[in-house]
Each structure stands twice: as structure tokens, then as C-alpha cells.
Fold these 3 entries.
Entry 1:
Amino acid sequence: MESKDRDVEGRPGPNSTIPEKRYFRIGEVADLVGVHAHVLRYWEKEVASIRPGKSSSNQRRYRRRDVEIFREIRRLLYAEGYTLSGAKRRLQTQGRPLTEMGEAQAPAETPVAAAEKSLPDAGQKIQGALNEAKAKAAPAALNQQSEQMNLKFRVASAEEKLVRVKKGLNDIILLTGEQP
């Protein structure tokens, strides 16, 4: 007679209790979840909350929490018909209480968050005014500094730039001790 918690070969199945162990190998987790090991490796890549450690022989070591997450993913996919991306979203919202419609409730809003929501335009207006004042003040400050340092900036033509580069190269050649 076969128990509903065990499969045909007598291994634990997806409805069995999770043994009291600290770590599980991938084969054990596959048996406990009821899927193949390659499916677990794929889910592991897709779900960020599952990050197994590695043993000294470089084998994956899953924790009990990982097994529980895998079981929940399997239930969402196979029993409730979710896609993997939908199951990931559902897992992310499971920490919050669900409404009657099955959607996660938003956490209670703090007074600070409520105040920030009520005055979003004020902050944007202040930031815009500051940016505008900086933009007006920056050119004047630069002009004042350049006049104090007696700097005259002007746009040089391409020929002038080329002449300066040639002169600089000639100076470098003279410094090395060779004739231009």
C-alpha cells in the first residue's frame, strides 16, 4: 500500500513533511518538491530569494526556507495556474496580508509619507527655483573669476589649434635633445 506522502519508489513527495535537517542536497529537494533537479536550478536562477550555499565539494546546499519557497512555487505553478513571473510577484507580496480579492494590501501609510504625498509640487518648485538661480549665478561667477585672474577665453579656429599643437610637439622634440 502506498502512502499519499510518498512516491512509487518510497521517496518523500511534495505533500510529505520536511525533515528536520539544516541543509538539503538538490536531489533531496527535488524529491521533497516533486520536480526534477534541473527545474529547481532554473527556478533558482529566476527567483532572487533562493541562493543556496555550496559545500566543499561544490554541491548546492539548500536551507529549509528554500525548500518551502520551492514548494510554494510548485503549488502556484501547478495547482493555481500561475506563470513563473506571476508566481515570483506573488511570492514578493506574501509578506503582506491579502485582501478578499487575493491582492496584497499596501502597508499603512506613515504621517511623513502622507505629508510628502500632499506636497509633491512644492518640492519640485523649490528645486526648480534653486536650479534656475544656480544657472543664472554660474556664468556671472565664472566671468568674475576670469576677470580677476586676467583670463581671456576665446574660441580658437582649427588652424590656430593646429599651430599650437605643432609648436607643442616642437617643444617636446627640443626637450628630448633632437633637432626638429
Note: Residues 58 and 160 are 65 Å apart (CA to CA).
Entry 2:
Amino acid sequence: MTTSHHTKVLKQIRNKPAKYEKFLKHNIPRERKFGRTTKKCRRCGRTAAHIKKYGLNFCRQCFREVAHKIGFKKYG
């Protein structure tokens, strides 16, 4: 379930308090304290292929686009 989907459902069932409470309890994505989903690219929000070294917090695709501007040089 995507974030936009659960917000649409919340608007539809807002007037039914029992269903609203149950939906909130079981369906809203909760905040993660650890794991893959806590580390997101600061540019695009992607969680895969995350580069955390040196405090970059980019995915590898965004790093390739921004690396030269940041000051990294390509060797070889």
C-alpha cells in the first residue's frame, strides 16, 4: 500500500469512527528505527544502493550524477 493510497482511504472513512480507528491501527506505515528503509537517498528518496560513506546519503545513480560537482574524481 502506498502512502497516497492510505491517505485517500482515510478521507473516505473519516466519518465512521470505529472503522477509522481500526484502519489507523493496522494500515498506516510506521516509522522505522533501523533497517534498509531508514536509509534513503537525500535527492530522490530511493532506498536501494545507498552510499552512506562520508555522510553522502546518495543512491549510486544520484552519486554518479553529482560526484563531479561535489569534488570526486574518476580514476582509470
Note: Strands lie at 50-51, 58-59.
Entry 3:
Amino acid sequence: MDRGGGDPAAPDTRQRSCPSAPAAPGSLLLGVLGADGRIHNLRTAMTVDQDFLDAAGTNGPVEARMRFAGRCQTSGCSQWTGTRCGVIDRAMAHLEAARQSPVAADLPPCVIRGDCRWFAQAGPAACGTCSLIVTDTREMTAAE
């Protein structure tokens, strides 16, 4: 399902945001991992700088505790299938196989929904799934 607007058969050529981008200076902090294991989105956009990332990194990998948004790299990303982002498709298929419905009555707050790659592909179902995706699931160890 393409929510990009216009002809649904036409390719979506609009510049999109990746809601699971690597943490880098200039990225938007999208949300923070809560004790419930879900990402809780910020209500206001916050662009991060290297000082923020350095400070946040003292407690382990930042992508294991926070989600960042950046420009969708399409073919420059290993998750790109050639026509769409594979991350949200795989996550939604996994939930469907487990017979879990991620769609909530109200969409969670999101600072990038208007240009989000996942929302453009899958609509509101992507928003329910989004909160379950943690970019970096490496084990946090004392060595990191």
C-alpha cells in the first residue's frame, strides 16, 4: 500500500525520511526505548549533534535505546528491496504471522509521518509496528 499520494501504480519519487536511520550528527531523535520494550516517540523534533551522541554513547549503543530518523537512502541502503524498504515489510509480516494487530485506534505522535518511508508504504499499520522496532539489538556489555 503506497500512501505517497497520486497514482498508486506510479513509483513514489518523493524524498522520504527513514524512521530507523543510524545515529549521526544531524539526525532527528525520533523516540526512546521504554521499559515496556517499545519505542516512545518524541512530540517535538530534536536534531542531535556529536556532543549528544558522545554523551548518550557512554551508556552503550545509542541505537539500542533510541531511534533516529534521517534521509531514506533507497538504493544506498542494504534494507532497500529495489522498490521499497524491507524493514517495515518484514516486521509487519512477522506480526501478521504471530496474529498480532499493531494498528491502534489513535496513531502515536510522530514528527516525520508526513514524509515517513514506512507510512508511505503501509499507512497506519506501519505506525503501530514502528514502536516495536529497535534499530540496534546488540547486547549491551560493559566493554561497549
Note: Residues 82 and 141 are 35 Å apart (CA to CA).
